[in-house]
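Q: I'm building a small set of examples for a reading group on sequence design. Run inverse folding on the following structure and report the sequence directly after it, with nothing in between.
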């Protein structure tokens, strides 16, 4: 054991001799000591030699509690210490009286006894101590001189053989080459040049030993590790830009940011232990020496005073020791803004004037100043009218470019009611105030209202009256007057209607009284939900105007009876009696409308019955078998108040397909104007014959007819050269044929009055009873059985002293023509669209809108042929002619 320690001491002495010595007292930065794997307590490790130092004034201390150092520099183990394969490192500190401390790293490394095993003859042999010690250590970037011996490599086989050594691997024949060499004879390992640990921290080389004579290996190859020991040769570096931000007026201890640094030297050593220091700005900031976190030390940071601070930061390795390497940098600390300054006004008060009746007008700009960051929420102003705007006549906005307050008149002022308005306007920011005792500021604004000559004003913008419909004309509804807003007088003001769509109201120009001018009808389309509006205008002597609205609520009266449909279609059903739905309609409102009551008159013929279905409809059913045809069924219908009348419904019984009658025959009732319309072409023809006769008699005379643009109801020029329209068979009405001679039959007055009831225009109409014709057609011409049930037109029947006259000769002509037309229609029915297309019934799609006059073509259906209401709308000239003919 003693010999081992002696060897270690000799090695340390040699190592100390190699280390550079200073001219003054100095401590080496590192010390390498070879020790056994286990160091016993009380063992002396080595002695530290301090050149040119006074032992009495030099104080040495150990940072490792397992070791201590005596005053003479001997290091002693206080406890048993086991040294791992990678070694153990601890620090010694040396300090002269009154001087700074110096650090020295002590590296403990140990040798291991390695054993080798031989294979041979089936058993293992333990060899002697292996021919190489533990890993070798070299200092990085050693200044030399070079080449420099490291240690001898000796194989146990040297005792039996004359050997030579070889070495290979990185640092020899691999990158980086020519770093190490081996004396082949002596086995001395040599380093040829400095090595940078940060680039090559360790080398692993393979050593082999050969017999000189036989060139055979005399021992197993040995891998030798060369560890490059670190020296503090790298200056620490800043990793990130030194840019930080902290809010103004932050409390002491607020984190500003963290300085991040790195060092390329060996990890977990003092070479990379960095100490952070602030060299400037210590009155405002501090830095944690271990973590590098910068914090504030005061709450006096004010962005409005200084928005950026530049501080110098130092990073130093060796935990800030005097021999540590360092670097400095400048950190930029930006002071962030908070809303600690409210906006301030440039004036103490404002006065402004505005004309009455002005609105949506800018009347005042209010500038403000703010020390906070421009265009930030802490700077942008927001104005509030805190007093004086109870009626909402003003509003405040902010000019986004100048940050000024904009005062608007949003609702017109009235000089007569308010001549002066005192406002108080507060200036705020978008952001709330923070970390300050300041308050929002306000400023008074005196607004003067100036007078203008205004037009008259109605006592109220709108006035409402409730009126019953159909009240007599001239009835006073009420008054709607206006006054001069300045004099509060109505003198000299005139009243006019600005709008009265139905012309129902008259206005007294002097008094503003409203009276009924025409019948007010609640069912009129001019009403919306029973309300009728008129607009009035008031004009004073200076022609200034004011407007107002009169709302008339029209109350309903029971002036409309429930109305039944004119025509209904009842489809025959085999083996049962048919029925049809009758729906009534009343234009009045409840309670003058539904539910309706339906009934048949007491003198009914026993053919029909009616049953109420719901409030507005009833079911009409025939209670005995009836042939197809048209039946006029009288029916009584009344509203909820019992107000109603007897009405006649034309019910057509027919055979149907899909609720549509198979035949298109119809019964037509023609009024006086309808007959006149058909006789008018004959009259025009007679008028034309007169000048033709005169022309024939006086051939030598040439008569010139003056052509005018307006025919005046006489002859019209026609250029029609094509064939005429084919005759519709449904329009040719033939009288009954038989051996019985028809006589002139008087018509009773009661029946005559009923006949007159079929008149659609007002003139007398000619009527033939269905009983006079049905017998013949039911046997011989079933196809025309329903065509003649109502009236005859153009058949030669003349009207004389309330009698119906029948011409026998004409009857024969109708029989012949009817037979011919019947054959022709039967033939055309088989031809369909191949021929005479215009004479055949066609199906047309209904497009949703009907014609006001109905269809007059050959293909009209039942409803169109029977609808002759268009005769009532033939124009004013035709009506005048019809009135003259009716009177004469």
């Amino acid at each position: 054991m003693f010999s081992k320690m002696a060897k270690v001491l000799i090695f340390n002495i040699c190592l100390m001799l190699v280390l550079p010595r200073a001219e003054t007292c100095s401590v080496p930065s590192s010390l390498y000591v070879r020790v056994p794997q286990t160091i016993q307590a009380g063992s002396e490790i080595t002695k530290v030699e301090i050149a040119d130092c006074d032992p009495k004034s030099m104080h040495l201390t150990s940072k490792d509690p397992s070791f201590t150092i005596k005053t003479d520099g001997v290091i002693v183990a206080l406890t048993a210490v086991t040294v791992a394969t990678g070694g153990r490192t601890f620090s010694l500190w040396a300090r002269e009286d009154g001087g700074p401390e110096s650090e020295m790293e002590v590296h403990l490394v140990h040798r291991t006894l390695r054993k080798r095993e031989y294979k041979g003859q089936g058993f293992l042999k333990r060899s002697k101590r292996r021919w190489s010690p533990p890993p070798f250590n070299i200092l990085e970037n050693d200044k030399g001189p070079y080449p420099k011996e490291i240690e001898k490599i000796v194989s146990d086989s040297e005792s039996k053989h004359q050997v030579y050594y070889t070495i290979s691997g990185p640092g020899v024949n691999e990158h980086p080459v020519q770093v190490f060499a081996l004396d082949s004879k002596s086995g001395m390992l040599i380093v040829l040049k400095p090595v940078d640990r940060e680039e090559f921290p360790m080398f692993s080389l393979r050593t082999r030993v050969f017999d000189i004579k036989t060139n055979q290996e005399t021992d197993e190859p040995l891998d030798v590790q060369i560890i490059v020991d670190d020296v503090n040769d790298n200056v620490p570096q800043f990793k990130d830009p030194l840019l930080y931000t902290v809010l103004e007026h932050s409390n002491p201890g607020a984190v500003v940011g963290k300085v991040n640094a790195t060092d390329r030297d060996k990890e977990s050593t003092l070479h990379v232990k960095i100490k952070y220091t602030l060299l400037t700005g210590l009155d405002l900031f501090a830095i944690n020496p271990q973590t590098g976190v910068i914090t504030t030390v005061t709450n006096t940071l004010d962005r409005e005073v200084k928005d950026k601070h530049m501080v110098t930061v130092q990073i130093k390795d060796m935990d800030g020791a005097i021999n540590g390497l360092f670097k400095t940098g400048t950190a930029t600390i930006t002071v962030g803004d908070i809303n600690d300054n409210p906006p301030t006004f440039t004036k103490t008060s404002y006065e402004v004037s505005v004309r009455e009746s002005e609105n949506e007008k800018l009347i005042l700009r209010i500038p403000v100043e703010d020390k906070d960051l421009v265009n930030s929420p802490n700077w942008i102003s927001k104005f509030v009218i805190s007093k004086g705007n109870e009626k909402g006549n003003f509003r405040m906005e902010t000019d986004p470019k100048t940050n000024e307050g904009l005062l608007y008149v949003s609702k017109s002022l009235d000089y007569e009611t308010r001549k002066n308005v005192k406002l108080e306007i507060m200036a705020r920011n978008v952001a709330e105030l923070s970390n300050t005792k300041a308050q929002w500021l306000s400023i008074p604004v005196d607004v003067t209202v100036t007078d203008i000559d205004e037009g008259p004003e109605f006592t109220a913008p709108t006035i409402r009256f409730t009126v019953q419909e159909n009240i007599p004309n001239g009835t006073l509804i009420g008054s709607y007057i206006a006054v001069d807003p300045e004099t509060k007088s109505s003198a000299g003001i005139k009243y006019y209607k600005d709008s009265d769509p139905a012309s129902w109201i008259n206005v007294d120009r002097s008094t503003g009284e409203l009276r009924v001018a025409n019948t007010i009808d609640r069912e009129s389309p001019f009403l919306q939900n029973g309300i009728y509006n008129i607009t009035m205008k008031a004009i004073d002597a200076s022609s200034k105007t004011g407007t107002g609205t009169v709302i008339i609520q029209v109350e309903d009266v029971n002036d409309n009876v429930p109305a039944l449909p004119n025509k209904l279609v009842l489809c025959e059903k085999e083996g049962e009696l048919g029925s049809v739905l009758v729906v009534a309609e009343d234009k009045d409102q409840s309670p003058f409308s539904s539910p309706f009551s339906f009934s048949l008159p007491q003198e009914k013929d026993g053919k029909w019955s009616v049953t109420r279905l719901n409030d507005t409809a009833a079911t009409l059913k025939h209670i005995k078998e009836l042939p197809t045809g048209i039946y006029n069924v009288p029916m009584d219908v009344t509203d909820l108040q019992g107000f109603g009348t007897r009405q006649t419904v034309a019910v057509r019984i027919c055979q149907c397909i899909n609720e549509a009658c198979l035949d298109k025959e119809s019964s037509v009732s023609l009024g006086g104007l309808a007959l006149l319309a058909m006789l008018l072409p004959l009259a025009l023809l007679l008028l034309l014959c007169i000048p033709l006769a005169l022309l024939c008699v006086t051939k030598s005379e040439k008569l010139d007819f003056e052509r005018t643009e307006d025919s005046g109801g006489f002859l019209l020029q026609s250029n029609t050269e094509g064939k005429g329209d084919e005759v519709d068979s449904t329009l040719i009405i033939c009288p009954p044929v038989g051996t019985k001679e028809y006589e002139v039959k008087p018509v009773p007055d009661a029946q005559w009055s009923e006949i007159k009831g079929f008149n659609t225009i007002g003139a007398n109409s000619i009527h033939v009873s269905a009983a006079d014709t049905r017998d013949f057609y039911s046997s011989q011409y079933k196809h025309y059985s329903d065509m003649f049930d109502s009236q005859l037109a153009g058949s030669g029947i003349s009207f004389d002293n309330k009698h119906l006259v029948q011409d026998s000769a004409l009857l024969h002509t109708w029989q012949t023509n009817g037979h011919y037309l019947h054959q022709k229609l039967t033939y055309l029915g088989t031809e369909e669209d191949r021929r005479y297309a215009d004479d055949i019934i066609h199906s047309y799609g209904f497009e949703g809108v009907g014609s006001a006059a109905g269809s007059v073509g050959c293909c009209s259906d039942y409803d169109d042929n029977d609808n002759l209401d268009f005769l009532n709308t033939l124009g004013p000239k035709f009506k005048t002619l019809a009135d003259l003919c009716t009177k004469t």
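The first strand starts at residue 30 and ends at 34.
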